[in-house]
Amino acid sequence: MTAADYSKFLLALVMYREARGEGQTGMLAVGHVIANRCHMWGKTYHDVILGENQFTSMSVHADPNDIAWPVLEDEVFYLAENVYSGMASDVTNGALYYADETFVTSGWYEREIISSGLHPVLVKIGRHTFRK
Predict the structure, then answer these.
(1) Count of structural domains, the chain
(2) CA distance 37 to 51
(3) Contact call for residues 122 and 97 (beta carbons, < 8 A)
């Protein structure tokens, strides 16, 4: 497995865990947030996806999604390849953050992202609100 293969697998896994109930567009949106963070912050997919306090489905063992695994036939692998390669258009318009804002439990997200005024809403896809 190459480093690129590993990055694409991690990308597909987090897209699936975070947004499988939001359809293709929702999964693409999560993938684009990750790609946008990589480009903006100068980090690798590994660093962004597995970073502390980034994606609970990947780092918090109490998260019910941390046991969800896609099967090889799932479309998420195709979607992840398209995000990784830059072939998929960014459905988030450059978003760096997202959440189901009807159910925010993170004081940090509420304070730093929603209430700060620094991160305007770019788009809503399914239950998720995507912000700059």
Answers:
(1) 1
(2) 12
(3) no
